[in-house]
């Protein structure tokens, strides 16, 4: 893909003038004609969906910022004013609030697709690393945005998360004071969070440009997971437009239908009821939880009995993703041809859902019937905490132990020499084909 020659020819004087100074039209035309592996399935459509989600969040966020007041005495009322008095304000706010959830649904599926098909392996390490940076910035942006409505869960969520930063030795306390703007969460905190929440989406947009640049240079992965030889380009490749623009467009329409169901019929289903109560520093909610898309990492935080250890584990759960390209020792990309690793991957999916479920449970919830009580380090009988620790252990074992060990010991299935034969015959692997050489595997 990086060797794709430009076929764009300026047709007007304006186009010629612009092309010699800022070839942005050439870049768009070349991207539309970019050779793309012909066997890409619908799991590859989430890149376009994510671009749509990002632009939706930026546009709706700018409009909301025009009417929002970042003051502890006025923030909650300003949100209610947006809902009731601003023309179309209810729609803009619901699109923005539910758009965050849609954004994370798409990014989780996008990352899981990359994990399953080995899209992080050489020469695409930088694509994956920039994607992880985007994911981390998304989490930070979402947390900051969760605080802005200044409801009960907003205030106490900020109290819990900022206190975690203070647990870092030596530098934790100065960072905590800087982030809060003082010794406690107050108006200065809300102003800082509002400023950062407004800024970070544009940082994400810049990282997305780098992400696409890296993709353009390294080339697109495919479900088979092999590099396409130059002499097979015409048989194994199709131009991005119209084939994949239509495919992406159809997937985006389906995604927008799901989006619309939540916006128009269940706008508050993914939020927390306590956030419709004004923030009260003197009344602690019964259960302080983040939004659903942060629950797996919140569960990992609570799984560790030590406060600082929990912070380290939570950030390590994200940090381990950055070194994933060097943890996978297999020379085969796609788990389609790695049956043993595929089994562990599906267990990983169950564990991820389980962590999210455990993160939403009360810390002092009763023992789950049928599982029995387990005496834990803190002396409580709590099956939820026991399950959380079990799931947390598997999460880290998957990346640090299972992925490297299985890659060395597993015997993969035969891999096609090219992608066109499996596409045209409907078979994943042809017995007549020998396993691809390391050069073809990339």
Automatic annotation (TrEMBL):
GO CC annotation: respiratory chain complex III
Compartment list: Membrane
Molecular-function annotations in GO: metal ion binding; oxidoreductase activity; quinol-cytochrome-c reductase activity
Membrane topology: Multi-pass membrane protein
List of residues binding heme b b566: 110, 211
InterPro entries: Cyt_b/b6_C, Cyt_b/b6_C_sf, Cyt_b/b6_N, Cytb/b6-like_sf, Cytochrome_b, Cytochrome_b_C_euk/bac, Cytochrome_b_N_euk/bac, Di-haem_cyt_TM
Family matches, as SUPFAM superfamilies: a domain/subunit of cytochrome bc1 complex (Ubiquinol-cytochrome c reductase) (SSF81648), Transmembrane di-heme cytochromes (SSF81342)
Domain (Cytochrome b/b6 N-terminal region profile): residue spans on this chain: 14-224
Annotated transmembrane regions: 42-69, 90-111, 126-148, 160-179, 199-219, 240-265, 308-327, 343-363, 383-406
Superkingdom, natural source: Bacteria
GO biological process, one term: respiratory electron transport chain
Required cofactor(s): heme b; heme
Keywords in alphabetical order: Electron transport, Heme, Iron, Membrane, Metal-binding, Respiratory chain, Transmembrane, Transmembrane helix, Transport
Co-factor binding details: Binds 2 heme groups non-covalently.
Residues bound to a ubiquinone: 216
UniProt binding sites for heme b b562: 96, 197
Keyword Cytoplasm applies: no
Family: Belongs to the cytochrome b family.
Subunit structure: The main subunits of complex b-c1 are: cytochrome b, cytochrome c1 and the Rieske protein.
PANTHER family: CYTOCHROME B
Protein name: Cytochrome b
Organism: Brevundimonas mediterranea
